[in-house]
Specification:
This protein has 343 residues and is mainly α. Helices cover 36% and strands 2% of the residues. The chain has two domains: 47-189, Cytochrome c-like domain (Cytochrome Bc1 Complex, Chain D, domain 2), CATH 1.10.760; 193-316, Cytochrome Bc1 Complex, Chain D, domain 2 (Orthogonal Bundle), CATH 1.10.760.10. The protein has helices at 5-25, 54-64, 77-80, 127-136, 145-153, 156-166, 173-185, 193-198, 206-218, 250-253, 285-294, 302-312, and strands at 96-97, 100-101, 233-234, 262-263. It has a two-stranded antiparallel ribbon with strand order 1-2. A hairpin with a 2-residue loop joins strand 1 (96-97) and strand 2 (100-101). Helix 2 packs antiparallel against helix 6 (156-166) and helix 4 (127-136) crosses helix 7 (173-185). It starts with a helix and ends in a 31-residue tail after the last helix.
Length: 343
């Protein structure tokens, strides 16, 4: 049987296409395993649906620090979750979005792998769902998702990085949120002085020891070690701001029993995460403890407040402030990375 030249060309072209496709899709991202600190429970995050990889984490980190994700390229994830403040909002009570003020102070992102629900009111059922809330919010990043995805797909650097992390395909919203999650999941803080004491590598000085004993008696039920939160929602006798009118978890559930209930925050790195509260109304640990004292939530003497403060300072993990794996490759100045262009 004779095979025409045209048929031969077609067969060869098809074979070449198959070989090319095989080569393109044989990407091999490098798996990364999140190590659980000794004595900690296993993370609740379902890594089976979004396995950590070196490429995915690198992509998520780049996206996290890129203000191009916002509508006017002025706000990145790191704008509200600042590394120097243990990945929360620093210096002002409310986070600043593209349209200036938001309605809440951003919570810390450390140890999110152990959180079943996110946000102060728990309305995000997953880390991926949480990422979409600020992206879509007109008060935060105000991103137009189709436009954002088009810009990412047209950016050669991002196209290459997404392909390395998830395989060659059109960049999708799912890939975007999964990459952001992968970076945030690596933000583990477990090396404070408290941790070193628990591991037998250090000792509390007297005020810290006394503060720890007070903490164990009066605070541990909500701020349970080793994560220093039980992730419950509590009304701590905080009054409703007359301007913000934030009813807390009730706004999400519609249940009046949830009025003014907010998620118990972790106390890890608490000395770095001021101002405190869902709306940043407390500018110091002293003001928070004074609120608990005067509201009758926790009976505390001035002496106990002093010792408790000494203990809370032992929860600072200074290593996370200098860990290059957590920090941007270039310094961020006014939310802009020098010499960084967006295509």
């Amino acid at each position: 049987m004779k095979i025409s030249v045209a048929t031969t060309i077609t067969i060869v072209s098809f074979a070449a296409l198959c070989m090319g496709t095989t080569a393109i899709f044989s990407y091999k991202p490098t798996p990364i395993r999140l190590l659980t600190p000794k004595g900690w429970p296993e993370p609740v995050y379902k890594f089976s649906s979004n396995p950590l990889t070196k490429e995915g984490i690198a992509l998520g980190k780049k996206l996290f620090y890129d203000p191009a994700l916002s509508s006017d390229s002025s706000v990145s994830c790191a704008t509200c979750h600042e590394p120097a403040a243990a990945f929360t909002t620093y210096d002002h009570p409310l986070s600043h979005g593209v349209n200036n003020l938001t309605t809440r102070n951003a919570p810390s992102l450390f140890n999110v792998a152990w959180q079943k629900e996110l946000m102060y009111d728990g309305r995000a059922a997953s880390l991926e769902a949480q990422a979409l809330l600020p992206l879509h919010s007109i008060d935060e990043m105000d991103a137009n998702m189709p436009d954002l995805l088009q810009r990412l797909n047209n950016n050669p650097t991002y196209k290459k990085m997404f392909s390395a992390a998830f395989g060659p395909s059109k960049i999708t919203q799912d890939q975007l949120t999964r990459a952001l999650s992968q970076f945030q999941l690596t933000l583990v803080s477990a090396n404070s002085k408290y941790d070193k004491v628990m591991r037998g590598e250090a000792s509390f000085i007297l005020p810290e020891k006394l503060g720890y004993e007070i903490f164990e008696k009066k605070c541990v039920s909500c701020h349970t070690p080793p994560l220093f939160t039980n992730y419950s929602y509590q009304n701590t006798a905080i009054t409703r701001d007359p301007v913000l009118k934030d009813n807390g978890r009730e706004r999400f559930t519609g249940n009046s029993a949830d009025s003014l209930k907010f998620k118990v925050p972790s106390l890890r790195n608490v000395a770095l995460t001021f101002p405190y509260g869902h709306d940043g109304r407390y500018y110091s640990i002293l003001s928070v403890l004074t609120h608990y004292k005067t509201s009758g939530q926790i009976p505390l003497s001035n002496y106990e407040i002093g010792q408790l403060t000494a203990f809370l300072n032992t929860l600072t993990d200074s290593s996370v402030l200098t860990n290059p794996a957590f920090l941007p490759a270039q310094p961020v100045i006014n939310n802009k990375i020098p010499n960084h262009t967006h295509q």
